[in-house]
Amino acid sequence: MTATNTGRGPRSRDAILQAASDLCGELGYAAVTMEAIATRARVGKPTLYRWWPSKGAVFLDVVLDRIVEPAIELPDTGDMARDLRTWIRGFADLFTDPHARQLLVGLLGAAQTDTELATMLREKVQRPLQAGNRQRIAAAQAAGELPAMDPVLLEELLISPPWYRLLVSGEPVTREYADELVDAVLSIRLERPSAKQPPR
Amino acid sequence: MTATNTGRGPRSRDAILQAASDLCGELGYAAVTMEAIATRARVGKPTLYRWWPSKGAVFLDVVLDRIVEPAIELPDTGDMARDLRTWIRGFADLFTDPHARQLLVGLLGAAQTDTELATMLREKVQRPLQAGNRQRIAAAQAAGELPAMDPVLLEELLISPPWYRLLVSGEPVTREYADELVDAVLSIRLERPSAKQPPR
DNA sequence: CTGTCAAAACTGAACGTTACGTTTCGCTAG
DNA sequence: CTAGCGAAACGTAACGTTCAGTTTTGACAG
């Protein structure tokens, strides 16, 4: 709603995103201010606020431009198990890189207390990927390549442990961990598909 | 390091935590200020800063006192599968309650840009629970009640999807979802324990 | 193709506001 | 009489906005 830069961006969009990204690397997400971004990018503060409603919105675009687009799509080589492994390894790599980590953690943290930002994040990052992934998963399930279960849950079983480590436990997310995780999830054999039995 | 209130708390500790909790319910985490907490609790600001270094630290104690202690321990009835179901259902209930949700999301969000707070959170919440849980899980695995795999990963497979929904996707965490999740994880049958094959 | 000009967008500085975290003051309870 | 506390006041920092004055852009006349 508020200033989605759907039209064209500001003249020096790149300089601004670059400044924000650099400052985040130098000072950490929390210490970056809108003033500092404007100064570094040699841009007036009003220009900044004209196109982005908040610091978080700026960093959302930083992440979209430099992180998500190149690195987070589920590949498609025909071998689903392998694709999933590659995909989760991508997250591991991303969550291990200090700069990307700073950006993602700061952004997600901000989104926890900024509804506007959370919405934009889900619409621009989550949603676009989700739909395709679930379809792919469902297709692979139909072909017997993946455990027969709710595709949403299957996706979450793969993707949430890395996020949990990033945002909650702080444990490192290595490639070995990624592989171990994918192996475990691919080993699910539900006796009755979508079993639901109450605990008592 | 900075003012861990390890000694005894301030005289009106309860009034302060109550004020913080109430304000969070009324205004949302982000809108609560240290000033407001002090005023509401009829306490001087210096007193607040004497015992807690930041808003996040206050809310950490709120969560510890009113959320974690009562509600997050893995029960022990002898039936591990059932205990796990109860445990994850507990998280579902917690993440569904609007007040608890506000508190947890705000606190975790703040922890993403406050190292001090993140450390305290892990030491006071994560660590105490973790050790016991992993031991229980390992024992149950030895008894053949749970899939034979890294207990750390097994715990994460159960606990991270709810956290993911809370902090990343925003999807609701229902009891049905909790059950579905536990069923899926308990259905893991690793052909070769800890299989690792590179994707190419 | 080029010179001119109006409109749009930009920079930089300044402003009021808000919350921070600290300091000071005076009361009050022990 | 003194130690500790609540209340108020203070300096600092960043917010988000407003206001000039300047630069850039693109269209059109020559």
What would you say this structure looks like, in words?
The structure is a homodimer of 200-residue chains. With 200 residues, chain A is mainly α. Chain A folds into two domains: 13-59, Orthogonal Bundle (Arc Repressor Mutant, subunit A), CATH 1.10.10; 73-186, Tetracycline Repressor, domain 2 (Orthogonal Bundle), CATH 1.10.357.10. Chain A is 68% helix and 0% strand. Chain A has nine helices and no strands. Chain A has helices spanning 13-27, 34-40, 45-51, 55-71, 80-96, 98-111, 115-142, 151-169, 175-186. In chain A, helix 1 packs across helix 2 (34-40) and helix 4 (55-71) packs parallel to helix 7 (115-142). Chain A is elongated and about 60 Å long. In chain A, 39% of the residues are buried. At the A-B interface, helix 5, helix 6, helix 7, helix 8 and helix 9 of A face helix 5, helix 6, helix 7, helix 8 and helix 9 of B. Chain A binds a DNA duplex (30 and 30 nucleotides) through helix 2 and helix 3.
Helix content range of the residues of chain A, please? 55-70%
Any idea what the CATH superfamily of the largest domain in chain A is called? Tetracycline Repressor, domain 2
Large-scale geometry of chain A: elongated
Using the coordinates shown, work out and report the CATH topology of the largest domain in chain A.
Tetracycline Repressor, domain 2
The overall average pLDDT of chain A, rounded, is 89
Unreliable runs of chain A, pLDDT <50, ≥5 residues? 1-7, 193-197
Category from helices, strands and their pairing of chain A: mainly alpha
Beta-strand percent range of chain A: under 5%
Count of spatially separate domains of chain A: 2
Keywords (chains A, B): DNA-binding, Transcription, Transcription regulation
Domain HTH tetR-type (chains A, B): 10-70
Pfam families (chains A, B): TetR_C_11, TetR_N
DNA-binding region (chains A, B): 33-52
